[in-house]
Amino acid sequence: MPIHVELVTQEEKVFEEPEADIVVLPAVEGEMGVLPNHAPVLTTLGFGEMVVRKGNAEERFAIYGGVVDVRPDKVVVLADLAESAYDLDIEKVQAARERAAQMLASGVPEEQNREAALALRRAELALRISRKIQQRGSVLRIIQDDEEES
């Protein structure tokens, strides 16, 4: 019996897979693996990588906080911010990281300091995930039928 996975932000439904084998989530308590028939859980997500596997294929996402509702047959991730790890633009992420680091080093006001620290944390996570994908080489991705036709 597979598990249905939905990844949603305030802006859009980022991803949906009705027949995943396993979901790995960045819960605040640590990495959490979810298989079909998992006990119901509602927990907070931290910054980290979400992995959805179906057979030999997988999808990876950078998750920047949120909550997850786990049911025996469904996982609904309500992320504060999420993006496909395969769509990350390394040059943009590196530039954002450098801007945030410069802001922190220059001694900006407290409100901007928090924003810069958050931006730096996001950029470092995105870079770490991108490097991991590059090291692994080519990976089979889960592709929906409607995406293949595009």
Description:
With 150 residues, the chain is α+β, with helices and mostly antiparallel strands. It has 2 domains: 94 residues, ATP Synthase, domain 1 (Sandwich), CATH 2.60.15; 47 residues, Single alpha-helices involved in coiled-coils or other helix-helix interfaces, CATH 1.20.5. The chain has 3 helices and 8 strands. Strands 1, 2, 3, 4, 5, 6, 7 and 8 form an 8-stranded mixed β-sheet that branches. Strand 3 and strand 4 form a beta hairpin. Helix 1 packs antiparallel against helix 2. The longest helix has 27 residues. The radius of gyration is 17 Å and the shape is globular. The two termini are 30 Å apart. 22% of the residues are buried.
The gist of it:
33% of the residues lie in helices and 42% in strands. With 150 residues, the chain is α+β, with helices and mostly antiparallel strands. The chain folds into 2 domains: 3-86 and 136-145, F0F1 ATP synthase delta/epsilon subunit, N-terminal (ATP Synthase, domain 1); 87-133, Single alpha-helices involved in coiled-coils or other helix-helix interfaces (Up-down Bundle).
Between the first and last Cα atoms, what is the distance in angstroms?
Answer: 30 Å
Assigned CATH superfamily of the largest domain: F0F1 ATP synthase delta/epsilon subunit, N-terminal
Top-tier CATH class of the largest domain: Mainly Beta
Structural class, from helix and strand content?
alpha+beta
Shape: globular
